[in-house]
User: Fold these one by one.
Assistant:
Number 1:
Amino acid sequence: MTRVAVLGAGSWGTTLANLLAEKGEQVRIWAFEGEVVEAINQRHENPLFLPGVRLAPGLTACADAREAIAEASVIVSAAPSHAVRRVIERIRGNVKAGTLVVSATKGIETETLAFMSAIIAECLPETRVAALSGPSFALEVCQGQPTLVVAAARTDAIAEDAQRVFATSRFRVYSHDDVVGVELAGALKNVIAIAAGILDGLGMGHNPRAALLTRGLAEITRLGVALGASPLTFAGLAGMGDLILTATGDLSRNRGLGVALAQGQSLEQYRAAHRSVAEGANTSKAGAALGARMGVELPIIEKVGDVLFNGKPARDGLAELMARELKSEQWR
Amino acid sequence: MTRVAVLGAGSWGTTLANLLAEKGEQVRIWAFEGEVVEAINQRHENPLFLPGVRLAPGLTACADAREAIAEASVIVSAAPSHAVRRVIERIRGNVKAGTLVVSATKGIETETLAFMSAIIAECLPETRVAALSGPSFALEVCQGQPTLVVAAARTDAIAEDAQRVFATSRFRVYSHDDVVGVELAGALKNVIAIAAGILDGLGMGHNPRAALLTRGLAEITRLGVALGASPLTFAGLAGMGDLILTATGDLSRNRGLGVALAQGQSLEQYRAAHRSVAEGANTSKAGAALGARMGVELPIIEKVGDVLFNGKPARDGLAELMARELKSEQWR
């Protein structure tokens, strides 16, 4: 039995904690909200972020991240991207060297443009860090739908450790060695999903959506290659797979944000009405900044940023996008 | 003004003929069914294959393929894949050297494993052949939804000619030089779409569907690379784009066939109830044969064939598939 701490009790953190608890591991989850701690411990549910799912009775929650990680040999980092550094800094000094830390958050830190695994490696340099990513709606994992994801790390040994921790017969984990590609794809697909939601919200059809997703993955791939990632990563589960899921599934928060934008809502209005974070909004800024830094054009990501933050009407942003002359069918 | 002949008045042939007629070209379409010829000429509609769409008044239909191509400088080949050779052989001897022949059919000839453009080049060796492909539901093209496709040919000049013939502000055509990749992707995505329909029909979720599409494109890519295609083609509009469209859109006949199979219908029952051809059924045989010839494993395509032709229940086929140990996340 492995002692596991999960930091963050959003829908994905709660799902991974529950999956590990059902596997028989001893799992403690840290929740930011006191009511979530209480609900998990007393009623085995997380009504705020995973309503309707009955959690494993062995899963316990606590309100103190340091308490959650005591004696844990595996830590799962699952806070929203803007909170990851704060949470990891909180446990700094209490983490044993060699601990496996698995990042399950898809995002880029807005201020530093750092990926989540880089923040963890910076704050906890003596740990072994992996990134878990791929097409995985939390609710479907809880329902036992077959789900395929990847665990990426800088060494095969670390990736395979992460694989062993999470793998079940219905949650299949493939090891991967391209951490940058896996994390970039997982973060930026949320921005393309917002664009797809805008198309859907404007009543556009499947033809333009398929074109948008293809061109969107092409621009993510271009940026990834500039950052040293392998182009093949973007054709895999963490790239194409997760983009299809997020941009076509009704359970996606990012796609939902795009639909709301198309219907005339502002980002502030959407945020006021939704408790869960649509990571793609912040990621659009980070993605555009990374593109500028690397000299890579990202027309779709930039247009989404204009709609989110610069007051551009969704319809105009999309019209410009579809009218733009594409240079070539290929990503390079 | 260009004189164009379109051979085949299914939904896609009719749509392309209509698009060209609306562009101002002089277009004659050959229809197999007498009632379609009459309906197009007298009522400007194709009630059998494109009901509800008002066709350009200038579009004329005829019952004789040789008459349709008289004086045409562009021929669009749009018959179902099993009929293309017969139709092209019919016009052999009546086609001027240098005529541009654009194949708009996605499929592989079952007996010879030839792609459509290869059949045309074989029967009409003095013509200039291109293949048109990409994510394009016919009805959405008729509705003016922005649509992005590729025109592939062995020389840039031919591809660019095809591009010029079809391109409008809402139907954007990119030239492409990988004919094998474009035609293979367009044909085999129909088989993966049948598999996706089976998943949907079995009530499976978005997570397994996203994984299936990713692994499906990976196996098409493996086969394509073995046949000399570029892996990048499969990440483009003719590959990923068309796969997303066909496997997630409600307008797809191939996905619809998969749903019917999951609900216990046989291929014969489905065919008896539908006039339009679901190309993916025949293509699953051709794809499996190509894989065997090239020594490339195609587990998803082979399972679809087992369900279609070997009496394997759809649920068992899928269960085997999801349980199969994947060797690696990458396509090679």
Number 2:
Amino acid sequence: MPEPRRDSRREPQDGPVLLYGIHAVEAALRNPRRAIRRLLLTENAERRLAEAIAARGVQAERVIPRDLDRRLGPDTVHQGALLETEPLPESSLAELASRTDRGPIVVLDQVTDPHNVGAVLRSAAAFGAAGLVMTRRHSPPLAGALAKSASGALDLVPVALVQNLARSLAELGELGLTRIGLDGTASETIEDQRLTGPIALVLGAEGKGLRQLTKESCDCLCRITTPGPLSSLNVSNAAAVVLHAAALHRQGRAG
Amino acid sequence: MPEPRRDSRREPQDGPVLLYGIHAVEAALRNPRRAIRRLLLTENAERRLAEAIAARGVQAERVIPRDLDRRLGPDTVHQGALLETEPLPESSLAELASRTDRGPIVVLDQVTDPHNVGAVLRSAAAFGAAGLVMTRRHSPPLAGALAKSASGALDLVPVALVQNLARSLAELGELGLTRIGLDGTASETIEDQRLTGPIALVLGAEGKGLRQLTKESCDCLCRITTPGPLSSLNVSNAAAVVLHAAALHRQGRAG
């Protein structure tokens, strides 16, 4: 087996990027930019993925569920499908900005939970976001648990990994985007914003929220209207709410 | 230590209900209906919870983080706070229906992932839902991982556990509620519904969706408009989107 290509996102000790779960593996097989190193499937998973395998023209190696349990740990819901692959080519901020006719760019400020980032990617794909920006450090790997939670969206939504979020927000501003930070303590509400045109929605980690410099790099800060007894939302739920509102605005419907 | 009270939700082999995480424990301390058996806190957690501890008038037992790691497993994010408690008194469907002036009832059809159910509860608390209905079987325990994800909402949102979901939906209909099932294959969209008045929002498990009998027990089936390349959402994200829309409708704003 060839040595996996290294790139700047990965440490030298990393092995190949692993994707598991039916939806994640199917989306990877259907993504021509996604390299296929090894495809390990149970009989059942191979049946479910038959169409995508045929379209890609690859050969799967047959395994039993226990083989994948041993490889991934017994608590990993792999659904009998494991793909050894490589990181996707990275997107630039300019590439993401060129796609904002279809929806907002989502920017995550050090959200570390892979399930949350995966769910954000999934909502970004569902509501037609232009792409996702994350910091290269303090973000989960674009693989495994994140890809499983993204349910295929990792191969549908372009991701830009950046060194310095404040500088990247400045760059997005120069590219003509309005940068809207979500902040539970803001006085303005997201429901009063016009969410059309080129915008970046900036969301912070649970608990910590947006860092000070991130806040200062936004054009405005808004909160989601929460009439109930709790005022903070799970970050992926907050992203879904705002992406949904933006999708409605783009269709000319009030949000 | 007294033997914890058993109730119908718990198997005889169960120990006390365990809640961990700062927000979950704080909300429990502030809930007078929540029994306190033992409160185990690190020095740091006790400082963060000082106000709630004083308000409740309880005494915490001092532990070090490793004590809780040993008790809960090394991967559990307990934040130095563990509460041994009992299940909350159960709510009836009629009690939930009497609260629908403030928001919809959320009904989950065999959603088994505790993080998802917890996140749904959290959004239900944020957007002011009337309560949550789940099946007693095929739902995660109202404790631990669910309570942590709910971030305090388990002690804010009343939950009804039912034996038979179709029968419960019939009962909610008799109580005057309109039952709206979320179904990605529906032709109608949720954005075209009036989400005011007494309504129940029925959501299914990922992958499986709503069971056939559950669908037949709804007044209408709707999908969330997803203009992007993926059409399915994480169940907690779908719940957040619809609860947000319902909250806007109740404020007389288009959704």
